[in-house]
Amino acid sequence: MNERVYQPIEAGDPADDLRMFRRCLGQFGTGVAIITTRSDGQNAGVTVNSVASVSLEPPLVLWSISRQSRSFGAFQDAPGFAINILSKDQIELSRHFSSSAVHKFTGVPSRNGHHDIPLLDGAVAHIECSQEAAYDGGDHVIMIGRVSRVSRYSGDPLLFVQGRYVVAADHPDVDATTAANGTSAPPQIAVDSALIPLLFEAHYALSAKFDEHRRAEGLSRTVARILAILQDSPGLTAHEVARKTYIGIRDAEDALAELCLKDQVVRVGNGDYTLTQAGRERREAIKRRWLDFQSEEMSGISQGELNAASSALSKLLANASCESAL
Amino acid sequence: MNERVYQPIEAGDPADDLRMFRRCLGQFGTGVAIITTRSDGQNAGVTVNSVASVSLEPPLVLWSISRQSRSFGAFQDAPGFAINILSKDQIELSRHFSSSAVHKFTGVPSRNGHHDIPLLDGAVAHIECSQEAAYDGGDHVIMIGRVSRVSRYSGDPLLFVQGRYVVAADHPDVDATTAANGTSAPPQIAVDSALIPLLFEAHYALSAKFDEHRRAEGLSRTVARILAILQDSPGLTAHEVARKTYIGIRDAEDALAELCLKDQVVRVGNGDYTLTQAGRERREAIKRRWLDFQSEEMSGISQGELNAASSALSKLLANASCESAL
């Protein structure tokens, strides 16, 4: 927490403002999972972020399905389901299973688990369940699964936080205390060649300061990205905006609606979104501000040092980008 | 997904191996929340990561409480509860409310919400609920809350993934597509002074390659960190190991138990954990491997370039670490 007064950005009764309610819920980060099942000889699958552990003994987990979902009937009738926890490389699969596509499984590599329920390749875990109970949850139904088998795979989980698809990063404080930990945090190295640890530290410090500036301007990452994308590519559908910005489709739609209310974005003839003059001006102001900020951060570094540093980092980048010999 | 064969690291019936079950569940990332309530004039609070959204209309959320929890009775009797979604600066508060401390609220800044339930300062959201239903969930009870008021605050949410406390980072692919987005991703800048974007790119590439190496060695981040910490500070309790490594207490206990089984860690007289000779050797091998790896990555960079780059990055770091003028 910083030292500014601790005051909400927004607050109220969720019944009065569903978008605000969703933004508040989005503060609780989650993984992303595709729940699969098989019923009447047909596969069904939906993307959710409402998975939660429940019990160790007996082993129980839960998730919620919308009563409006086209797959609702399939999940009600099926003897069980599988939770496929997605890896960071599966954003497109996440979008695909949250779309209204009819043949969702075509071309999606999978194997069959219990009850012939498909287990999707590339997931970082499969949690196979028999249906234990289904509880009322308003416009959703809470599905309780008894876990019969679990499988864990290598890889980094995909995360969904504040409406964006993200990945996990070490906590910024971790480096000071476990600098020599042999993880992705800067590993210890002889002082005269400490370029890599220095690079990690500088990255953390700059990221934090960029974020502080953005926040001080009252600018959310979501809105900043949407303005940038619409300036570069005017005339996009909400789905295209979501895809290009790594934002969830519902969050993109919410943000676009808010930007339309502020007259910074407008829907043109075919329904596509584009920046208004006011939107373009806001975007230009943000951009100028960031460029000024960067110049300021680089003050005191001579041109010679800049050139040498750029050359060294370019080589590091080229080395690191090489196909690993593993 | 990389091109190696897609095979599980571990798999089986959760009833046969609770630690494996927990590791599989840990693949689904979550936020961290402290649930607070007030019953019989007493405050109660517990840390959980089992929060999930349920319904928009009516607005419902859920979380689960262990039947063994000392606060179980308080939550059963209370008219409602508040979900305090923690920010990245609240790891110690998370640990505090998952401990067995008796006076958990002493010295913890809060204000009173509905039903005089404490809302903790520094949270990134408060979700105030009246108790709607409580469902059986094996060794836990699933609490359903009807949301009466939400508040959202500035800040980055704390996340818990694969047993570790982490923060969100932009998806690694985001930079290529939205390079000019004015967020923490590298902002666009004139080419002759592109040091900062280059620094961000090099950081991402090196992080990814470090991780790939770690994974190829079958080494989890959790185990790597525990070995490092126990080498630096022999003789620690499980709580001390957890705190110093940013690992959850239960996950630290699980990993220490596994390391004891492998004879790499041993409990000494007073119960503290320390490395065995085999543990020290493994740690040394990991460290050597990382140092070799770094030297390799820096090959082709002259000493002059290294020095200039280190100097430039040091200045960047010093600038970025300055108290912001905001």
TrEMBL record, chains A, B:
<dbReference type="InterPro" id="IPR012349">
    <property type="entry name" value="Split_barrel_FMN-bd"/>
</dbReference>
<dbReference type="GO" id="GO:0010181">
    <property type="term" value="F:FMN binding"/>
</dbReference>
<dbReference type="GO" id="GO:0042602">
    <property type="term" value="F:riboflavin reductase (NADPH) activity"/>
</dbReference>
<keyword id="KW-0560">Oxidoreductase</keyword>
<dbReference type="InterPro" id="IPR036388">
    <property type="entry name" value="WH-like_DNA-bd_sf"/>
</dbReference>
<comment type="similarity">
    <text>Belongs to the non-flavoprotein flavin reductase family.</text>
</comment>
<dbReference type="Pfam" id="PF01613">
    <property type="entry name" value="Flavin_Reduct"/>
</dbReference>
<dbReference type="InterPro" id="IPR036390">
    <property type="entry name" value="WH_DNA-bd_sf"/>
</dbReference>
<feature type="domain" description="Flavin reductase like">
    <location>
        <begin position="25"/>
        <end position="167"/>
    </location>
</feature>
<dbReference type="InterPro" id="IPR050268">
    <property type="entry name" value="NADH-dep_flavin_reductase"/>
</dbReference>
<dbReference type="InterPro" id="IPR002563">
    <property type="entry name" value="Flavin_Rdtase-like_dom"/>
</dbReference>
<protein>
    <submittedName>
        <fullName>Flavin reductase</fullName>
    </submittedName>
</protein>
